Amino acid sequence: MIDILRLPEKLRAKLKKPLGTLIPGNFQETISKLRELIEREKPTKIITVGDAVTECMIKNGIQPDVFIIDNKIMRQSITPLKFGAKRTLYAKNPAGTISDNAWAAIKNALEMNIQTKIVIDGEEDLLALPAILFAPESSFVVYGQPKEGVVVIKVTAEKKAEVKLIIDEMEVVNSKN
Q1: Three-class SS of residue 120?
Q2: How far apart are the C-alpha atoms of 23 and 8, rounded to whole Å?
Q3: What's the mean pLDDT in 139-145?
Q4: Please, what's the b/e burial string for 100-134 (b: 16 or more CB within 10 A of its CB; e: otherwise)?
Q5: Residues 166, 168, 169, 171, CA torsion sign
Q6: 87 to 112, 119, 120, 144: CA distances (angstroms)
Q7: Which of 98, 32, 23 lies closest to 68, judged by CA?
Q8: What would the pLDDT profile of 106-134 be if each residue is shown by its tens digit?
Q9: Using CA atoms, how far apart are residues 48 and 66, in angstroms rounded to an integer?
């Protein structure tokens, strides 16, 4: 079990680049391409990371199996999304980190076969990484790429290995709890 993984400066530039396929455009432009991709690939599970992408997908009839939100868009607080799920989990996750609390919530959500909303107290930006690790192969992890579009990551053994290398480069910090 980890305590907190902190993103070191040397990884920041690497993680600013999309981890998967970028569908460029605003949400209205990207949603039809995303829908086509989902219909063609039939992902095992769909996991969204971020309030804007989650809201856009649900409003357009695409139901994620797991959605990870922090009630912020571009680091600005928003009115919490009204979309419910069969189950809601809560986790603390400081900015620029992956906490053991968020790690466990994502693992738990992806082990269950029930739609789950994970509400993060803090920041959800890096949580696509454990989502990729724990999602079954052929799942999609979807997140917004600010001012560019939507990123879709198809979970494969190779993608899991790539993410594991990134996580292994993160700094382990012991929390004070």
Answers
A1: strand
A2: 27
A3: 96
A4: bbbbebbebbbeeeebbbbbbebbbbbbbbbbbbb
A5: positive
A6: 10, 11, 14, 23
A7: 98
A8: 999 999 889 999 999 999 999 999 999 99
A9: 7
The Cα–Cα gap between 124 and 152 comes to 16
CB atoms within 10 A of CB 80: 11
Amino acid at 30: T
DSSP letters, 55-101, are HHHHHTT---SEEEE-SEETTEE-PPP----SEEEEEEE-TTEEEHH
Q: Give me the long-range contacts of 74-80 (CB less than 8 A, separation at least 24).
A: 74/146, 75/123, 78/51, 80/119
Pairing of strands 66-69, 46-49: parallel
